[in-house]
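A.,

Following up on our hallway conversation. Structure tokens first:
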């Protein structure tokens, strides 16, 4: 069955049919296509195209068809797309009554509605996965409120921080991802049904009523835009890309930290794999795959942008190419979020090694410069003096806390015994006592606020 063909004298070449068919992937839209078709049937009843009995017969048959397709009991056949399959099965069951459903709609507005509904649900799935990962991060942070580690810039030791503070940085990244996903869902929340092929339809459909039945908050404003718009899909893919970026950054640190050269974290064996030739290996493949799949997700967004950039109004068949990338992104990102949460929950941080690393690389040098400023030295000179003292340490292979007081005074006579108090790592961390800083009290407070926020976020989703 085709949804078109009256003006054609020739059948479509079989190769062309296979080339243009989307049934192999758009069958994922079945529950949404059924819901959209049921809502349309009720709208046709309201405007007098269908009788009550006809509308009831159609909605019942659609529900049965959907159940059979979802249950794998119905052969999809060789139709052009899932919308054709559903309508073909409907006509086979109900005859002319089923054929009436086509009035006042096009596949153009139908597909747009299906995809919007699919993506609204997809956003909710991603939001749930993000919340679980964020909860895992908070659980690990709670266990490491006093764990010292080096903070890095340029991957070089910079200043000491708390591991909990470091982990909370990822919490903030994923919180922004959650907000982006929520915003994407808000922008998807417009119903295009009633737009027809591009100009609207001649039947008096109650568009707001259709939207309400399907859970949309409003209708689209322009029929031409409604059938050709895929901004809402790009918004979703962009939100996914940003989440993948943050997952990849976390994965990269896990890969680095699990090497014996860092030895900051020990991964659970259930989340590593071995080597076919090297018996000693326990490779961080999960983190590496998360890092690698990120590029795949980027590609789907770029492909969508590239496809959209040259399309004249309104619908063009190019738009069929939006779905495979969206479906793959949904599958990949959901699995990436879940596996990262699971592997992070099972990971064990090496508290002793992290502190040892924080003691390396003269990460307390900034605190020495700040000490000299408090003694009255301009920061430019304090920075230079601290750098010279670091040079002395490098030449001797010692830390700033090991340098004799006289050496300090040879560079800056104002230095007193109290300089050593500010060089202790715990003091360096405690000194950063301001909102957003790594001081223990600030981190503990930030952790508490994050837990409260997360609990409220979970509660909001359980209600809605």
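Then the amino acids I'd put at each of the 464 positions:
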């Amino acid at each position: 069955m085709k949804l078109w063909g009256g003006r054609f004298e020739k059948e479509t070449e079989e190769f062309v049919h296979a080339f243009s068919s989307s049934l192999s992937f758009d069958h994922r839209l079945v529950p949404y296509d059924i819901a959209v078709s049921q809502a349309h049937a009720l709208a046709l009843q309201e405007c007098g195209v269908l009788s009550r009995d006809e509308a009831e017969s159609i909605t019942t048959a659609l529900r049965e068809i959907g159940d059979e397709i979802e249950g794998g009991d119905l052969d999809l056949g060789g139709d052009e797309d899932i919308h054709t399959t559903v309508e073909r099965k409907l006509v086979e069951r109900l005859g002319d009554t089923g054929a009436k459903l086509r009035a006042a709609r096009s596949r153009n507005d139908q597909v747009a509605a299906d995809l919007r509904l699919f993506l609204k649900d997809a956003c909710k799935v991603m939001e749930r996965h993000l919340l679980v990962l964020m909860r895992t991060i908070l659980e690990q942070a709670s266990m490491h409120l006093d764990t010292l580690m080096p903070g890095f810039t340029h991957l070089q030791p910079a200043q000491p921080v708390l591991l909990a503070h470091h982990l909370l940085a990822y919490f903030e990244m994923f919180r922004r991802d959650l907000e982006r996903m929520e915003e994407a869902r808000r922008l998807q929340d417009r119903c295009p049904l009633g737009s027809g092929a591009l100009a609207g339809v001649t039947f008096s459909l109650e568009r707001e009523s259709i939207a309400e039945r399907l859970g949309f908050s409003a209708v689209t404003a322009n029929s031409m835009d409604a059938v050709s718009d895929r901004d809402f899909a790009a918004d979703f893919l962009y939100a996914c890309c940003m989440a993948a970026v943050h997952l990849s950054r976390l994965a990269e640190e896990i890969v680095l930290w699990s090497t014996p050269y860092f030895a900051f974290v020990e991964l659970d064996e259930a989340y590593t794999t071995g080597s076919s030739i090297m018996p000693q290996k326990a490779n961080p493949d999960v983190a590496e795959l998360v890092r690698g799949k990120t590029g795949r997700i980027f590609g789907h967004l770029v492909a969508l942008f590239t496809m959209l950039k040259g399309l004249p109004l309104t619908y063009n068949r190019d738009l069929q190419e939006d779905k495979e990338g969206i479906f793959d992104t949904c599958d990949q990102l959901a699995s990436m979020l879940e596996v990262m949460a699971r592997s992070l929950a099972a990971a064990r941080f090496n508290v002793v090694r992290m502190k040892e690393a924080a003691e390396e690389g003269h990460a307390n040098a900034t605190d020495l410069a700040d000490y000299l400023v408090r003694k009255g030295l301009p920061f430019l000179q304090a920075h230079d003096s601290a750098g010279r003292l670091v040079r002395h340490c490098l030449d001797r292979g010692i830390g700033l806390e090991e340098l004799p007081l006289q050496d300090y005074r040879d560079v800056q006579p104002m230095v007193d015994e109290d300089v050593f108090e500010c060089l202790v790592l715990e003091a360096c961390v405690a000194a950063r006592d301001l909102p957003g800083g790594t001081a223990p009290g600030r981190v503990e407070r930030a952790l508490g606020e994050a837990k409260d926020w997360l609990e409220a976020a979970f509660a909001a989703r359980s209600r809605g």
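Residues 14-105 form a domain with the Fumarase C; Chain B, domain 1 fold (CATH 1.10.275.10). Curious whether your intuition agrees with the design.

B.
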